[in-house]
Structure formats: C-alpha cells, structure tokens
C-alpha cells in the first residue's frame, strides 16, 4: 500500500492509496455534526482532486454516536459524492454500538448510488474494493 496523506485533522485523516487507487478516510475519536460535515466535505474535495471512484471509509476508531449527521450524509453528501464520480464505498464499522447505529441510520437515508457495503474489519473491506 503506497499511501499519500492528503489531510490530517483532529477527527479524520484522509489519504490516497496509489496502488489500489482509492481514497482512504480514517475517522477517529468522538464525532458530531460539525466534524462529520467537515470531514465529509474534505473527502468530496479530495476525491475529485484524485479522480477516484472508490472510497475506503474506516470508522474503526470512532468512539461516539454521530446520528445528527445521518440525514445530511445520506441525502446531501452521498448524492454529491456520486455526482463527483463515486461508484463504490466500503464502510468499516466502528466497534462502538452507537457509531454503528449512526452508520446504519445514514444508510437508511442513502439512495441506490453509489454502491455501499459495510464491513466489520478493514481487510475484508479492502478485498471487496479490490474485486471491483
């Protein structure tokens, strides 16, 4: 994996994997509406900059509920990502049950595009993205 760090913020690190040609979003710590929106909009900007069609979204280190961002994520952000070229989104759940619920709620607000699949571990998510 040849990772190039594109953004480091208190709540998210975004990198581009040149080998696999996907954007990697590594979220960490407590999240809320403001942190999710900031990180998500940076993902949108950087995905377009890298011309990537795949995202590996790692919530493994998220430690809180962030459900106040669910509707915005599903109805505003995912459509914007799709319009920018996103086709496949691998979402790795946090072990925190409240974060998992926030992920599932976001997906209830999300349409059929892009293709989103959820995973319990990073390696399975990577294998899925590589197979596309």
UniProtKB/TrEMBL annotation:
It comes from the Bacteria. This is STAS/SEC14 domain-containing protein. It comes from Hymenobacter properus.
